[in-house]
Amino acid sequence: MKAIVDCNSFYAACERLFKPSLHGKPVVVLSNNDGCIVSRTDEAKALGIQMAGPYFQHKKEIEQNNVAVFSSNYHLYGDMSRRVMEALRMLAPQVEVYSVDESFLDLDGIEPAKLYEYALFLKHTTEQWTGIPVSIGVAPSKVLSKLANKLAKKDKTGTNGVMLLQTPEQQMDALLRTPVEDIWGVGSAGAGKLRLFNINTAWDLRNMNEEWARKNLGGVVGVRLIKELRGIPCIEMKDPRITKKMIATTRMFGKPVYALRELKEAVTTYTARAAEKLRRQNGAAMEMSVFVVVSNNNGLQYNPYVRSAYTRLPVATALTNVLIHHAAEMTASLYREGCKYIKAGVVLSRIIPANNIQFNLFSPPENINVQKLMQTIDNINFSMQHDILKFAANGTSKNWKMRQEMRSNRFTTRWEELCVVK
Ligand SMILES: [Mg+2]
């Protein structure tokens, strides 16, 4: 059996954890630059505040209803996510982290008769250890477990936040109650297509034959989906050690940027961040690209466009100083005076394990001291404060930095921002 553990309204739950006065109150969290609503508590949902709705559109009802609003605080959410996943790793046999607030568990080792009790135990213990409420769906396949989780979340009081789809009757009941757009991997576009075939519920889809799925549902993927809905596991647990093949750091600027110097600062800062991620997975990149987004607002229409540049690195590397050098060159080649830049990003790709680097005849062996320097910078930045050590190219003013006007403290990762009780 597979389980999925999903944190309820994760970002908002993290905020509420450090502000207990908000328990039972509506809370929302905004995306980068305070743009859209990305997390809502049940109380905020009940007020009709839409997911992904622009903040400014909801501002009035938010103020009228005393909804607590927070800018996103990724330091806090990242650390709380790590704690939840760590708790699950201590409690469950095999854990595959699927997203910041979801993990699949392999429960094949648990006696079928004890599964429900075990899932309840997982839920209560995780909540007790971390303070973050979770919902759990348990079923023979990943797709069914996601579906069970959704139903558990919809009716938290009726289900205790845990739903088990063990018997064919339980599965049939759940599938009948699930509209096609709620199936993992279908989405609203896919649902529209399915409805043309008069397939409205997950149960309707489950009963389609594999030939039909191969023809109309994207081949193997469709067949797999139908099998998963029937409780036949086809999507295996992934090895959590698989590392990313591509690392991207991209941000919208808090304020538009016009000067090359500022644009370079932003791009090299993102490069430093991406390089840090790369080193954390012991990788080295062979390719790098930089892109910038230009706002093309001529007063009549808003039509942003992207300019990008690409470099094949002479030798795969994870050294920030080398990557920054290429990033700055590419940024200069993309820059046009008088343009209004609103966003930039860096992508590192063709990532190989750092111990497999193939040097070419003309490249000097990478200086071992520079690698040690990178390690030291990473350690200090991680333990003290992000960016306490950085390259001069990253600049100091950061006018382009994200807007986060309502960010809470980084309670769990900064000494000076600890929660004060009295
Ligand atoms: Mg969630």
Major β-sheet, in short?
5 strands, mixed
Number of domains: 3
Count of helical regions: 15
User: Which sequence of SSEs, written as H and E, runs from N to C?
Assistant: EHEEHHEHEEHEHHEHHHHHEHEEHEH
Q: What top-tier CATH class of the largest domain fits best?
A: Alpha Beta
Which cofactor or ligand species appear?
A: magnesium ion
Helix/strand class: alpha+beta
Helix content: 25-40%
The value of Rg in angstroms is: 24 Å
Q: Give the mean pLDDT.
A: 89
CATH superfamily of the largest domain: Reverse transcriptase/Diguanylate cyclase domain
Short description:
The chain has 422 residues and is an alpha+beta fold. The protein has helices at 10-17, 42-46, 55-64, 74-91, 115-130, 142-154, 156-159, 168-176, 187-196, 202-206, 210-216, 220-229, 260-280, 320-334, 368-383, and strands spanning 2-7, 27-30, 37-40, 68-70, 94-99, 102-106, 134-139, 162-164, 247-257, 283-295, 305-317, 340-353. The model has no long low-confidence stretch (mean pLDDT 89).
Task: Please explain how this structure is put together.
The chain folds into 3 domains: about 1-165, Reverse transcriptase/Diguanylate cyclase domain (Alpha-Beta Plaits, 2-Layer Sandwich); about 170-240, 5' to 3' exonuclease, C-terminal subdomain (DNA polymerase, domain 1, Orthogonal Bundle); about 245-395, DNA polymerase, Y-family, little finger domain (Dna Ligase, domain 1), CATH 3.30.1490.100. The chain has a 5-stranded mixed beta sheet with strand order 5-6-1-7-8. Strands 9-12-10-11 form a 4-stranded antiparallel beta sheet, with helices on one face. A 3-stranded mixed beta sheet has the order 3-2-4. It contains 15 helices and 12 strands. The protein has about 425 residues and is of the alpha+beta class. α4 (about 75-90) packs antiparallel against α5, α11 (about 210-215) packs across α12 (about 220-230) and α13 runs antiparallel to α14 (about 320-335). About 40% of the residues lie in helices and about 20% in strands. The model has no long low-confidence stretch (mean pLDDT about 90). It has helices at about 10-15, 40-45, 55-65, 75-90, 115-130, 140-155, 155-160, 170-175, 185-195, 200-205, 210-215, 220-230, 260-280, 320-335, 370-385, and strands at about 1-5, 25-30, 35-40, 70, 95-100, 100-105, 135-140, 160-165, 245-255, 285-295, 305-315, 340-355. Bound molecules: magnesium ion. Magnesium ion (MG) binds near residues 6, 7, 10 and 101.
